[in-house]
Design a protein that fits this description.
The chain has about 325 residues and is of the alpha/beta class. Helix content is about 30%, strand content about 25%. The strands form five sheets. Strands 1, 2, 3, 4, 5, 6 and 19 form a seven-stranded mixed sheet that branches. The model has no long low-confidence stretch (mean pLDDT about 95). It catalyses: [thioredoxin]-dithiol + NADP(+) = [thioredoxin]-disulfide + NADPH + H(+).
């Protein structure tokens, strides 16, 4: 039996496995090999790892965790039985005392030709992750969600040449005033497609005709947590996301969650920290259980001795 089975081998899962391995816990990481940031060539904002490729981070993380005895299994988890039996889709199962789910989220993208093909390259989401790399370039924001205006106002500090394409989003008078005050140009009309030239984004074509030259565009995807394993175990949700305490403990005893599966705003460095915090909480929880198990024989002997004394007293009429 494993002390902990970690499901998901991204930054959160591997960080947790590293901490637990160093705590001399028996740990397995089950990873399906579908990281959310796979399309990105680099990750930014991670102290000492700024500019590193996501794939390289995971490779190093796996090696570091394995150095402390963590077993990494390339597989997908089909379901988890209470208890916990972790069943793999290709067959086989793992028994665990505790579970940490770090399966991340998936991005639902708008059905605009070119968006999916350029996602993570020059069709971007997070200004903090990618804004500096496209600074001072002609940028665009696609109005594919309710936060498009806020997105554009934030991105303005990375470029003086910024265009908001409302697409099918209705702008209020207050929206237009704020955008104008910040120097964000608004180009009305529905977006037909993204135009590329020699494998790079070159512009945004409108359904009514005309193409606005842009070298990168940002949009807010619809983020959907990959939390099916958690909800199947009965973990409660709040506002569309699994509810946890600050350490990542869910409403189901023995089940933790870390990373984007519980927080859509978590960047790679944040997810790693969440994994570390969850690991320490899990280890403390296991330690409490270990202590109770160690005390059980003493309690049993004390109870037996007490029963013997009571029986002796009765024999002597006391």
């Amino acid at each position: 039996m494993y002390d902990v089975v970690v499901i998901g081998g991204g930054a959160a899962g591997l960080s947790a496995a590293l901490v637990l391995g160093r705590a001399r816990r028996l740990v397995a990481v089950v990873d399906g090999g579908e990281p959310r940031n796979a399309p990105a060539a680099h990750m930014q904002g991670y102290l000492s790892r700024d500019g590193m490729s996501p794939a390289a981070l995971l490779e190093v993380g796996r090696a570091e965790a394995a150095g402390y005895g963590v077993r990494v299994i390339d597989a997908r988890v089909g379901h988890i039985e209470p208890g916990f039996d972790v069943h793999l889709t290709g067959g086989g199962s793992l028994r665990a005392r505790r579970i940490l789910v770090a399966t991340g989220l998936r991005d639902e993208l708008p059905d605009i030709p070119g968006v999916r093909e350029r996602w993570g390259k020059d069709v971007l989401h997070c200004p903090y992750c990618h804004g500096y790399e496209v600074r001072d370039e002609p940028l665009g924001v696609l109005g594919t969600g309710p936060h498009a205006v806020s997105h554009a106002l934030l991105l303005r500090q990375w470029s003086d040449d910024l265009v908001l394409f409302p697409h099918r989003t209705e702008l209020t008078g207050a929206d237009r005033q704020r955008l104008s005050a910040r120097g964000v140009r608004v180009v009305p009309g529905e977006v037909k497609r993204l135009v590329t030239d020699e494998g790079r984004l070159s512009g945004v074509e409108l359904a009514g005709g005309g193409t606005v030259p842009r070298t990168a565009v940002f949009l807010a995807s619809r983020m959907v947590p990959r939390d099916g394993l958690l909800t199947a175990l009965g973990c409660e949700r709040a506002d569309g996301w699994v509810r946890t305490d600050p350490s990542g403990l869910t409403s189901v005893p023995g089940v933790w969650a870390a990373g984007n599966v519980r927080d859509p705003r978590a960047q790679v460095v944040t997810a790693a920290g969440m994994g570390s915090a969850a690991a320490m909480a899990i280890n403390h929880d296991l330690t409490d259980e270990d202590v109770e198990a160690a005390l059980a024989p003493f309690s049993a002997r004390a109870e037996a001795a007490n029963c013997a004394r009571v029986a002796a007293d009765r024999r002597h009429g006391l």
